[in-house]
Amino acid sequence: MYTKLFYIILFMSTFFYSKANETISYVVEQSSYNQKPALKVFAKFQTSRNGVTNLNFPSSMWGEESLKNHFKNFRTEEDSEILFNESEDLIQIKHADSLNYINVSYLIISSENSLEIDFVNYFRPFISKERFHILSFSLFVTSSLSMNPIYDIDIHWKNFDKDFLIHNSFNSNITHQNIKGIERDKFNQSVFIGGDYQLDEFFINNKKIVFASPVEWENIERNYLLDLVTKVIKIQRKFWDDYSQDYYTTILTPLSNYQDINYIGAGLTNSFMALIGDSSKISKDDILNLINHELLHNWIGVKIENKNEEKQYWFSEGFTEYYHFKLASKNCLSNQMESFFIKKINEFNYLLNSSQYNEIKNDELNYDSFWNNEGIEEIPYWRGALFAFYLDLSIRNKSDNKYSLDDLMFDILNDATNNNQTIDKDYFVKVASNYYGKDFGKLFDKHIVNGELIPLDNLYDRNKLSYSYQTSSKGVTYLKLLNDKNNLKIIFN
Q1: What pairing do the DSSP bridges indicate for beta strands 142-143 and 126-127?
Q2: What is the CATH number of domain 22-118+135-188?
Q3: Does the keyword Signal apply (predicted)?
Q4: Which end of the chain has the least Cβ crowding within 10 Å, N or C?
């Protein structure tokens, strides 16, 4: 009787212990390493009860390798043994069983030869005297007492000059932050900046939006960026009918000495960050492509998550591209207005047809191939966008314009928000079949799983859209959707 009761109590205490949020405290200070600017981080973690506490700092993430090269002078205050495991991104600390907390410190440095953020190190830490720009996964060591940890995090930004702005995915200009109940993945996918940025605040339905960017741009008007971000966020929140976020920030950083058209962005937790080559060659539509696409990731990719990241890029990247130029055209965000949509459809169709990887199977689009092969990394964008176009018009055609792909996307968002549903093949086929019909699975397998080119001629004929066959200078024959009023009327009716 007593033995059984003991085990029940032990089980219950272990259960409640594992369910409690893990608490982590960080203090971040300016520092130096080999006479170069650095950030010093002090962290306090709850310990495991078996005398071995596991901490995490990634060696690779989002195509960046050897991230631990930025991680220096790891120390503990308590008597302990530190074991590094490079392959598992693991730091093991062996300590006394009776220890309740462990205190550590370490330095984060920039790339050894980097004097500024560039297109080689855009997901790596950048730290200078004037500015820092770091993604959370390469700034903060995290812990893992449970399988899917949820954290209560305290961050104290200490000993920074009063004019040194502190800003991130969770708040602005607050030197002592409390972040409650955040999943580890959500925390890792956030961005932290400081220094010579300027903030502009505005509100949509009483929800705070912060635009962060340096004042000085050589070739791009900062006011244009602010105006575009404001318009795009309003349009997207209206489209999704989603005003649930109390706080959101867009962080745009100029990169000097770039003569070509270069930009990169990422949709993150409560935020979007982008690095833009400050070149005279960059156009307003280039900037629109970046901002509208990446801000859409707040829903497609962040709120609606992939079950397997690269395996569902046909959705999170391809469908995001499709809604980028669909919303941009319907709301006249481009100088080309509605014709922007047709231009992008034709561009993607040509690019997919002309690629040597145009029929690569979806299973071959994995972490290594996507992040390390420039010829492959664009395929899910082009293929997914054209598949979304095909599905959009097919749903409208089958329902006599009663439904569209929009209705399917709203259903998916609702499932993601209320049921924590993620995107994978089985779920998507099931929910899309409600609109397309029971044979949708065969269509999906043919064009997404097996990668066969999408028959746009059949789609155009069914919807009475005007098109012609074009042959490029490289000998690639593809369908070109004509830019005429009839086509625009049918597509946007």
Answers
A1: unpaired
A2: 2.60.40.3650
A3: yes
A4: N
Would you state the CATH architecture of domain 197-298? Orthogonal Bundle (1.10)
Q: Does domain 310-492 have CATH number 3.10.450?
A: no
CATH 2.60.40.3650 residue ranges in the chain? 22-118+135-188
Per-position pLDDT tens, the chain of length 493:
333 333 333 333 333 344 578 999 999 999 999 988 999 999 999 998 889 999 988 888 877 788 888 889 999 998 888 888 766 688 889 999 889 999 999 999 987 655 556 566 678 888 988 889 999 999 999 987 777 789 999 999 998 988 899 999 999 989 999 999 999 989 999 999 999 899 999 999 999 999 999 888 888 899 999 999 999 999 999 999 999 999 999 999 887 666 666 788 888 999 999 888 887 888 888 899 899 998 999 999 989 999 988 899 999 999 999 999 999 999 988 877 778 999 999 999 999 999 999 999 999 988 788 878 888 999 999 999 999 999 999 999 999 999 999 999 999 999 999 999 999 999 999 999 999 999 999 999 999 999 999 999 999 999 999 999 988 877 888 899 998 888 888 888 7
Using alpha carbons, list the distances in angstroms from residue 72 to 60, 94, 279, 468. 16, 20, 35, 60
How many residues are listed for the chain in this entry? Answer: 493
Residues 466 and 484 sit within 8 Å (Cβ to Cβ)? yes
Q: What is the pTM of this model?
A: 0.83
Between the two ends of the chain, the Cα-to-Cα distance in Å is: 73
